[in-house]
Amino acid sequence: MRDAVKIGILYSTTGPYGSMGRDAWDGAELAIDELQDAYAGRIVPVFIDPKANIPDYLDGARSMLRDHGCRHIVGTITSLARKEVLPLVEKHDGLLWYMCPYEGFEANENVVYIGGCPNQHLLPVFDYLIPRYGNRPYLVGANYVWGWEMNRLARELIAAAGGEVLGERYLPFEETAVERIVADIELRRPSFILNNLIGPSSYAFLAAIKALGARDPAFRPDNCPVVSCDLTECELPDIGIGVATGQLSAAAYFDSIPTAENLDFKRRVAARFGASRRISSVFACAYTSLKLCAEAIIAAGTDDPVAVRRLLSAKPARSILGPILIDPETHHAALPFHLGRINDDNVFEIVTSQAAIAADPYLTGRNRRSVPQLRVVS
User: Fold this and answer.
1) In a 10 Å sphere around its CB, with 0-12 CB exposed, 13-18 middle and 19+ buried, how is residue 259 labelled?
2) Is the domain of 197 the same as that of 112?
3) Model pTM?
């Protein structure tokens, strides 16, 4: 393929999830830098920042697809934004590369899902937590599809485990008045807390739980942890040193993964962004999505989404997440699972891990919990 190919990059760098958007943007930029070195300008990025405004997501995606001729868009953080731009992507026969963990129950042929679905994050989280802490959790979430669906699944998992959900509360984006929720948690005394809040709401909640644990040891992390499936390294500075120490989060990637491949990746990130830069799953998955997209286009000799999807499903590709293979039916990646605990230095220490788990977005049981160790064939 000789002609330059344009790839859209659509992330919000401000607003309630701005930290994640900035990290995703940086991950995409690092991938572009490396692609320019390898392919001498054959991949041309089209960056648009919708500033967490849904109409701007739509305008940005429309401009990429219609005006710039992009067939591929790497982007969106929230399920709200993803679901809003999808009809445009479908209309223009494009491909959206979505790289955040989400609530599942979707398998669109116009999306490649590099973020995890619930059987790749929530189910193994509960497999770990329930035997250790009990089956009487409290659920909190953002008042939109991520919070609603994650908590619905949590209720079903707890019922199947013979337990009881002691409370369930929701907050709008950017709402930081968490006092009534924390007072209810103190009253009901759950086994653990599932946190599906987003951005400032989550940070205020974690700070309030820290204060609750200081006055009542029953709510310290070793007794009643808060676990998230969407909390990453890039957000920890916004929370503050020591505020979330001991709390848990699940991800397909953590900066602290001690593999040779990750150490090499961290050296490249440090050379581009400085030695103090910690890498989040958002950064790593945006980087992975951009690299997979561009390299598949080059290998296929076309940016036609059907040809690109077919290639991605044919054999695993190298990635910082490990070998990536896209399921031809669900268009999801098989992903590893890691559970990390925040330490005193605001670093996720890995508590437990699983090898690549095949995605089962509708929880049909069709896919096994894990897949054999994949090998990249050069």
Assistant:
1) exposed
2) no
3) 0.95
Q: How far apart are CA 229 and CA 116, in angstroms?
A: 9
- Burial of 115 by CB count in 10 Å (0-12 exposed, 13-18 middle, 19+ buried)? buried
Q: What is the DSSP string of 170-222?
A: EE-TT----HHHHHHHHHH--S-EEEE--THHHHHHHHHHHHHHHH-GGGSTT
Is residue 54 one of the residues assigned to a domain? Answer: yes
Burial profile 325-345: b = 16 or more Cβ within 10 angstroms, e = fewer: bbbeebbbbbbbbbbbbbeee
Q: Are residues 187 and 133 in the same domain?
A: yes
Q: What is the CATH number of the domain that holds 154?
A: 3.40.50.2300
**Tokens at 116, concatenated:** 């995890």
Residue 64 domain-assigned? Answer: yes
CB 132 within 8 A of CB 148: no
Same domain, 196 and 214: yes
Give the domain range for residue 140: 122-228
pLDDT tens sequence for the chain (378 residues): 567 899 999 999 999 999 999 999 999 999 999 998 888 788 999 999 999 999 999 999 999 999 999 999 999 999 999 999 999 999 999 999 999 999 999 999 999 999 999 999 999 999 999 999 999 999 999 999 999 999 999 999 999 999 999 999 999 989 999 999 999 999 999 999 999 999 999 999 999 999 999 999 999 999 999 999 999 999 999 999 999 999 999 999 999 999 999 999 999 999 999 999 999 999 999 999 999 999 999 999 999 999 999 999 998 998 999 999 999 999 999 999 999 999 999 999 999 999 999 999 999 986 544 433 434 433
Return the exposure string of 289-313: e unless at least 16 CB atoms fall within 10 Å of the residue's CB, then b: bbbbbbbbbbebebbebeebbebbe
